[in-house]
Amino acid sequence: MIDFKTIFSVSQFARQLNDHFRTQFGAIRIQGEIASITRASSGHWYFGLKDDAAQLKAVMFRQRNVLAGFLPVVGDKVEILAQLAMYEQRGELQLIVDVIKKAGQGNLHEQYLQLKARLTQEGLFDSNRKKTLPTVVFNLGVVTSLQAAALADIKQALARRAPHVQYTVYHTAVQGEQAAAQIIDALQKADAAGHEAIVLCRGGGSLEDLWSFNIEAVVRAVAACKTPIVVGVGHESDVTLAEFAADLRAATPTAAAELISRPTRELLGEVDGLYNNLRRALRHRAQLLVQQVDRAELGLLTPTAYVNALEARLSNANGRLPRLVARHVRQHTDSLEQIGLALSAEITTSLDLAGKQSQRLNESINKAQKRRLVTLDSALQRWESIVEAVSPQRTLERGYAFLQPQRGNAVVRSINQIEAGDKLRATLADGEILVNVREKTGTSGLLGKDAENSR
């Protein structure tokens, strides 16, 4: 009890009030709306907390606000745990805030943690059940809202990085009471459509805005997709349970598009490399086959050479005949006629046999050469078909063209290389045409038309 006769200095009375407030109120919970906020260079937050009838000043020091997990802005509904105190130098009452969170977030955050723990224990988030994304994606399903900024980010990223990727948008609400059922339906349609991969995405927001992606049925629908799926929701700090269930999590929708697609320029470089390797392989293979034919021909005895060899043997035999006859005449005068007849028969038989062997050998050689040539011709035709299928000419015949200045051989790769009024040569599959540039339209213009067609 303070004696009314006691005289206090201003600082003494302010200290008494301060002690009284701390003792009387201790830690208190207050809910209200951020009326104003200042973030000082020291890192401290100074803000006003109000409702319809009153307003209080509050301060949250840096060592406490770094644990808040979000940056309050004017208009946020928040709940604080604080102590009432007096700023003695100015004689102002203020709240010293220890904890701050968005109003109503406590229950949602607790549900989020409980469901995450249960699904983790169930194994729904295990890495060994996640599917590997395809190396190259040409056909993509995008599950999001047609009005979402995330869709524009996806389109812009694909147009800039991988225009070869064809995509189909499956519209769904991404927040609100109907969002969960629509997301599940869109995921099932995209999964059944035969896409090589699926992207589920939306922009950032509060925990309430993103809650559709934390509903158990949605999380299980993501995990049940047979098609590899990437989920990119919000910003880097926004993490939903659907992202844990996905085969790959992206920090943003743009990052999702980049993760799912390889740059067109990189793929074209690989195709050029494969084409050059194929040409070298075909050339090397043809050289080997020609060498094999040459070696085979060198190893074969031609019919002429075989007959010459037989004739040489016959000539040698004819050279020996007179001496043999003379010796036999001297030794066996009585059997001269029989020896002559026998010799004549042997010569006739040898010639007949030699002729038949020569004919058979000639036929065998001709058949072998024909089979080898047919094999070589078939192999060369197959390689020529492969080379022809990946040739630039075939690409042009599928409806593509490339542009060059009217004078010069450089290829136009960007609208930044040309101006309205320029004359260009367009090379098609069967010739060239001369075109005048009336105007040029950037990628953003094409994206707007895509969005209008999607609606």
Descriptive report:
This protein has 455 residues and is α/β, with parallel strands linked by helices. It has 4 domains: 10-103, OB fold (Dihydrolipoamide Acetyltransferase, E2P); 125-262, 3-Layer(aba) Sandwich (Rossmann fold), CATH 3.40.50; 266-390; 396-454, no CATH class. It is 49% helix and 20% strand. The protein is built from 13 helices and 13 strands. It has helices spanning 10-25, 62-65, 105-122, 149-161, 179-192, 216-224, 241-245, 253-260, 264-299, 303-331, 336-389, 392-397, 443-454; strands spanning 27-39, 45-50, 55-60, 77-87, 92-102, 139-144, 166-171, 197-202, 229-233, 248-250, 402-405, 423-428, 431-436. Strands 1-2-3-5-4 form a 5-stranded mixed barrel. The chain has a 5-stranded parallel beta sheet with strand order 7-6-8-9-10, sandwiched between helices. The protein has a 3-stranded antiparallel beta sheet with strand order 11-12-13, with no helix packed on it. Strand 6, helix 4 and strand 7 (166-171) form a beta-alpha-beta unit. Helix 9 packs antiparallel against helix 11 (336-389). The chain is elongated and about 180 Å long. The two termini are 75 Å apart. The relative contact order is 0.06. One of its GO terms (molecular function) is exodeoxyribonuclease VII activity. Its main location: cytoplasm. It comes from Limnobacter parvus. Bidirectionally degrades single-stranded DNA into large acid-insoluble oligonucleotides, which are then degraded further into small acid-soluble oligonucleotides. Its EC number is 3.1.11.6.
